[in-house]
Write a structure and sequence with these properties.
12 helices; alpha+beta; 6-stranded antiparallel sheet
Length: 342
């Protein structure tokens, strides 16, 4: 990879010979090129965004239009105020003009309003420059962690996109999450909230910025570069949590070992399947499938093996009528085998 890792303050890791305790483990070897570019001070979460391309375009259009509006505001402000400031500057250099104030010939009733007007103008432009101007600059030209424009220009809009989130200030006080039970509990709580199926499957990546998490645009570009160059399959980035530990080096969290991990994985599969059907205009099939399963599951006698086979047959026939092979479509959208009872 072109980028180099940003070293944290901790220095080189003193790696222990044994492996880390559950639910932590070494990152997959295939992700090492990406890991080598990450900042050791931060925690990272990757997942795959399967929202429809049109939806992603509409979401991204909002900050684009907002930043274009800000740039237009600044251009107009510079066009309007620059001649005025140039006249004041010329007056300071000793070239009299209409902005020159000869205070010896003016009374306070004239001086005070003019000074107030100029102070207000200077303050307005100062606030615009300090607080608003960085927005379009960061949006287009940020360098340390990339920018949204650089990300979209390089990656474009895809049916399946790798999203990489980076922790904000809270990572500075996370403590020893491997050996300290209290720090581990708080850490896993944050990770659980950040990887909630309802969150990662109902929101496209751009909407996942929050008080706790930012998006790492450069890391997302690097991840897609790896996918495009066949260095890794996109499934390798499916819900991975990465962080650096002084004793073990880079670690990831085994999400399937956490409480409710298996149920969360099933929910993620269902949400991914729903999004894939929505992308091809067949979202109604998803809800009809759910209705069939719920109806049979609530019948007297429970959801027996015979009923599961009956449901499987009904669902496959339903999808076949719409020109979709259920098994192949599930594998394409979810990347794993068919669940029991569908």
């Amino acid at each position: 990879m072109a980028r180099q890792r940003v070293q944290g303050k901790s220095g080189p890791a003193k790696r222990k010979d044994g492996g880390p305790p559950a639910p932590f483990k070494r990152p997959p070897e295939v992700l090492q090129p990406l890991v080598d570019t990450l900042d050791e001070k931060h925690v990272y979460v990757t997942h795959i965004d399967s929202k429809p391309v049109d939806f992603k375009r509409k979401i991204f259009a909002v900050p684009v239009l907002m930043n274009l509006g800000l740039v237009a505001l600044f251009v107009y402000r510079v066009y309007y105020i620059l001649p005025y400031y140039l006249q004041i500057f010329a007056s300071v250099l000793g070239y009299p003009n209409e902005t020159t104030m000869v205070v010896d010939e003016m009374d306070w009733a004239e001086i005070a309003p003019e000074v107030g007007k100029r102070a207000a103008s200077f303050m307005l432009d100062f606030l615009l420059f300090v607080f608003l101007w960085p927005w379009p600059v960061e949006f287009c030209l940020a360098r340390e962690n990339g920018s949204p424009v650089m990300w979209r220009w390089t990656v474009g809009f895809r049916d399946r996109e790798v999203v990489v989130r980076r922790s904000r200030k809270w990572n500075e006080t996370k403590g020893d999450v491997v050996n300290d039970a209290g720090a581990k509990s708080l850490f896993m709580g944050r990770i659980s909230a950040a990887t909630s199926p309802l969150l990662v499957n109902d929101k496209t990546g751009y909407l996942l910025m929050s008080a706790d998490w930012d998006l790492d645009w450069a890391a997302m570009v690097d991840a897609h570069t790896m996918v495009d160059k066949k260095m890794a399959a996109i499934e390798a980035f499916k819900l991975v949590v990465l962080f650096f530990h002084e004793d073990f080096g880079w670690l990831c969290v085994d999400m399937k070992l956490g409480e409710g991990g298996e149920e969360d994985e099933k929910r993620r599969q269902v949400f991914a399947f729903r999004d894939a059907l929505s992308a091809v205009g067949k979202e109604d099939l998803f809800y009809r499938w759910i209705d069939i399963v719920e109806f049979e599951a609530t019948q007297p006698g429970g959801f027996t093996v015979d009923k599961q086979e009956k449901v499987a047959k009904q669902v496959r026939e339903l999808f076949d009528k719409q020109g979709i092979n259920f098994d192949e479509f599930w594998k394409e959208s979810v990347g794993e085998g068919i669940p029991s009872g569908i």
